[in-house]
Amino acid sequence: MIVLLVFLACYGLAISRKVKLAYVGISSAALLIFLLLPTKAMTPEEVLNSIRWNVLGIYWGFMMLSIVFSESGVPKHLARHVLHHTKNEGVALLALCAITAFLSSFLENVGVVLIMAPIALEVARKTKSSPLLYLISIAISSNMVTTVSMIADPPAIILASEAGMSFLDFYWFQSRIGLGVISIVAALVGLATLYLCHFKKMKTRVQLEEEEIKTNYLPTVVFIAGVTALALNSYLGVGPGVIGVIIGLLSLILGFRDLPKMVREFDWNSFFFIIGIFIVIGAVDEVGILGDLAKAIGGLGLNNPVLTLAIFVWLSVALSSFIDNVPFTVLMLPVARGAALALGGGSLTYALMYGTLVGTGIGGNLTLVGATANVFAAGLLEKRGHRVRLKDYLKISLAPTILAVLVAHLMLQMLWI
């Protein structure tokens, strides 16, 4: 009961966003350690083992690389080069969204939105269009690809750790099409829906002035090397967390002149929250609460794998509209595993875990507060005098979000059940 109360308080505060997430996670973990260690309900070894060190290593390293890469000029150069070859405003906006989606498949979403926002605002100004459609579409595109690769988003890294997946396992796993390929198809459906519903009718010509952009290609080289190393880590004999740390250290060397800025911009709040929430979930698992929750949710499916998958996918969509996706993922992946085991296990285990990630990743686009990138985009709009109302946001987000999740759900059902 004590563990359950601390767990509920932790999630309640995390959802409220009234207290910094780092304070919530670390204080909850510290309280549980203080209460459980003397009773031997949880040993020091179990506390350390509950922390996914590979997740932290990859998250820290590639987040540092994301900061250096965003300052390298390469993303801006790529975007402007593509825009110079577009026919009209609708195609230009689709190109911006596609570039955003590609970059967000490997880099931190908010960082990519901040890279693309100035370019999008410039195009909107040139075409005399409202920037609302531009920035919201870019934010949505960044969230469409949170499960395209192992390093796209913290929940994807957590899934890889939980399921024992390598970088390439995201595309072909256990002789089946993997989550990454399914996510690519879903993202393409989402982008196509944005184009058909909103961009197709935008026919104004886009003419951008020439601009000399200073580019540094070394961060790009480190990025390619890091992704390659993750893809080949089983052959290299180096853990993914170690690769992440090496990438982070190389990024610090490349950005040495801006080291104070890199330290400031790194998302320490989420980083320490992840550490704390790993320990909290470890304690919840040790006392059997996760097992009970898995049985309860599994029971909702009435021993029907198809119905159970639907529950996990769409429950995740609904809850991700207001719950941070990191704690939700850490909580639900063991629950998905437990529910699948109750129904016979096998490929259903991965179907439920994948469905949870799809729901909380793409589903985060359903509301303005469902993903951090959306909040940042809204903030940039409000600074320029454009208030983002829920109904205006839903006009843009609803169709691509629902259709993308539905496509991923159907593919999971056909391929993994």
What does this structure look like?
The chain has about 425 residues and is mainly alpha-helical. It has one domain. Helix content is about 75%, strand content about 0%. The protein has a two-stranded antiparallel ribbon with strand order 1-2. A hairpin with a 2-residue loop joins strand 1 and strand 2. The longest helix has 27 residues. The protein is globular and about 70 Å long. The model has no long low-confidence stretch (mean pLDDT about 85).
Query: How helix-rich are the residues, as a percent range?
Result: over 70%
- Outline type: globular
Characterize the biggest β-sheet. Answer: 2 strands, antiparallel
Q: What is the CA–CA distance across the termini?
A: 36 Å
How many extended strands? 2
**DSSP summary: helix tally:** 21
Q: Record the strand order, biggest sheet.
A: 1-2
Indicate the low-confidence ranges by residue numbers.
Answer: none
Number of domains: 1
Q: What would you call the structural class?
A: mainly alpha
- Specify Rg, calculated over alpha carbons: 21 Å
Family: Belongs to the CitM (TC 2.A.11) transporter family.
Organism: Hadarchaeum yellowstonense
GO molecular function: arsenite transmembrane transporter activity
Protein name: Citrate transporter-like domain-containing protein
